[in-house]
Amino acid sequence: MADSPPRIVRPISPHLQIYRPLFTMVMSIVHRITGMALYFGTVLLVWWLLAAASSPNAYTTFANVAGSWIGRLVLLGFTWALIHHALGGVRHLIWDTIHGFGPKERVLLAKATLAGSIALTIIVWAIGLAVKS
Amino acid sequence: MHSPMRTPLGRVRGLGSARSGTEHFFVQRLTAIGTLILAVIFLCIVISLLGESYNTVHATLANPLVAVVILLMLLSITVHMRIGMQVVIEDYLHNEGVKVLAIIANTFFTTVIGLAGAFAVLKISMGG
Lengths: 133, 128
Ligand code: HEM
Known about the structure:
heterodimer; A: mainly alpha; 3 helical TM bundles of succinate and fumarate reductases; 4 helices; 77% helix; extended; B: mainly alpha; 5 helices; binds protoporphyrin IX containing FE
């Protein structure tokens, strides 16, 4: 179907690289990047579950890696990616109701997503650190 | 079928949408809402388990409510991320062979993640 050669060579719209990056555009790209990061991040979730299902030793190994500085940094990134992607997802759901497309709303929603993701990540980690100690 | 007398449009006309044109879109929204709710509960569970011993974690995961939340979340996430990654693959991989292989790998990966996670939760629940 799609492999039949086109008879007419039509102009193709310019590619992404030639546009000056806009805030809303960058946020859209970040939604995709965080989606991909979460995709591979699920390996950590399954590692945690499998370790808990395996043995105290396996769990200690997981806990040591997760509690290390690198582990914590990755988990911090994971938390932010999840929250940012979730808020970005809510933004998509708002758009699905045909709202939020105006020039002002678009920028407002994008700003709220970014600020909200950073604030919520800090709050979640503050609670986590408080609970842990 | 491939008569040179038929235009590309003429060739696809009447084939319909295979009745699944909006399925990915809808299921992506469905699982977005599902994951959102479940991930919030899950985050609370994780926070309550930070730094806890193996025994505590094991006992918490054995709780039926916790287990069901995690099982539902695994289902919601894996369906969601499979569709999401497929969209990305279709956007960037234009070589037909590479694209099909990537879509197969995507299905394998998400299935393994879902099944391995579910198995771990069930094993703990069943007293393992
Ligand atoms: C661990 C959890 C999650 C994973 C692994 C994940 C993964 C992905 C991936 C890979 C994509 C494709 C990205 C793209 O097409 O640009 C995507 C899209 C999407 N995600 Fe998620 N996601 C997760 C959680 C969530 C949550 C909690 C929401 C909730 C509100 C959400 C809402 C969406 C929406 C609405 C889209 C479609 C965006 C579009 O149509 O362009 N996701 N996700």
